[in-house]
Amino acid sequence: MRVLRRGDSGPDVADIRSMLVSLDLLPDSGANGAHGDPGTGVAAHGAAGADTVFDARTEHAVRAFQQHRGLITDGVVGPATYRALRGSCYHLGSRPLAYLVSSPVHGDDVFSLQERLTELGYDAGRPDGHFGPQTERGLRNFQRDYGLTVDGICGQSTVRALRQLSPRARGGRPVFLREQEQVRQAGPRLRGKRIVIDPGHGGDDPGVEVDGVAERDIAWDLARRLEGRMKATGMEALISRGPAQGPSEADRAQFANDAGADLFLSLHSDGNSSPHAQGVASFHFGTGNGTTSTVGELLAGYIQRELAARTRLRDCRTHPKTWDIFTRTRCPAVRVEIGYLTNGQDRLRLSDPAFRDVVAEGILISVKRLYLLGEGDQPTGTFTFADVLAHELAKAE
Predict the structure, then answer these.
(1) What is the CATH number of domain 11-87?
(2) What are phi and psi of 193, to 5 degrees?
(3) Is-contact 203 215, C-beta < 8 A?
(4) pLDDT digits (tens, 9 = 90+) for 173-229
């Protein structure tokens, strides 16, 4: 579908408005009536006309939906927002669910299935609303254990069985507790850990670009600096793209999945229409309603605190999101927005190689803190690269 924004009109807009009305985020067309949208100057002739106009009320409703779902809150309906809107129209049992490679199934009903299987003790993967192979395996195991037809399809008989059984645990936390246990079992040493470093944008996509400073180039340089430090500790550091490449988020996630990565780190810088916007922010998978990647949230917190302390960039905190880069990666993933290139001070600091060294060291220290799990740790901002190397050497002996 085409990207839809305020001022657009047509049947695609009518479809969007209909979904927003069904979610109680937008009044019925009668509320707009024949008045049209004063913000765009588009006049609607009767209720039918109003139904096809992307007006100010529609934009406000889209923003409310995006904020609630952990999407980028821009009021624009692109592929991710449309997929989430369409998926919100389904509840568990409203349609058969199955793993379809050529046409992936996504929606709130899939999310409910994943959470229900998890509550019953089955590993259906991360509750992210995407019906993938791990969800199919969990569903088949459930069907096998309860004497149902083992076809990997969630139809009415499977839904009835799911609803009749009492859960062993409430909520979607068990899958993320497994993530945390994997980190614990991996041990405190960095040697052998496989990390995918993902420099944002690339190729023909510069990302944010101001006064000749491009996000694409800053991210690439940071990735190389981080890669060198990680390899020095014995880690296996892989970069998701080359200097002239700009893969999609799906391709970046697939690269991490194919590599069997333990962690995925995506490096970006931000931009804003206001030159006063500045600072560092970190993001991890989370729906905003309590379902979150335990390890992703923990690592994002470490990175955020370390970079805020070491760089003195404004602390814009950590945030749960349902971006594709989080839902498509099987390992814990974190995205870091390091400074605003639209802010003169942030841009000047990011242009300094010595500053980028500080950022790279802060991220490495954060990964080390994750695997230490609080044992033998040091106060935020005081752990050094030399300390990490000494700890690795001591453990090796």
Answers:
(1) 1.10.101
(2) -70, 140
(3) no
(4) 555 667 778 888 888 899 999 999 999 999 999 999 999 999 999 999 999 999 999
- Single-letter residue type at 298: L
Tell me the CATH number of domain 108-171, given options 3.90.1720.10, 1.20.1250.20, 1.10.101.10, 3.40.50.300.
1.10.101.10
Produce one character per residue of 164-174: b if its CB has 16 or more CB atoms within 10 Å, e if not: eeeeeeeebbb
pLDDT surpassing 70 at residue 31: no
Three-class SS state of 260: coil
Give residue 59's Cα distance to chain centre.
23
Domain spanning 188-396: which CATH class is it, in words? alpha beta
Pairing of strands 333-340, 263-270: parallel
Residue 59, token pair as written in the block: 């934009």
Q: Which two three-digit tokens encode residue 306?
A: 């370390």
Higher pLDDT, 373 or 319: 319
Q: Where are the domains of the chain?
A: 11-87, 108-171, 188-396
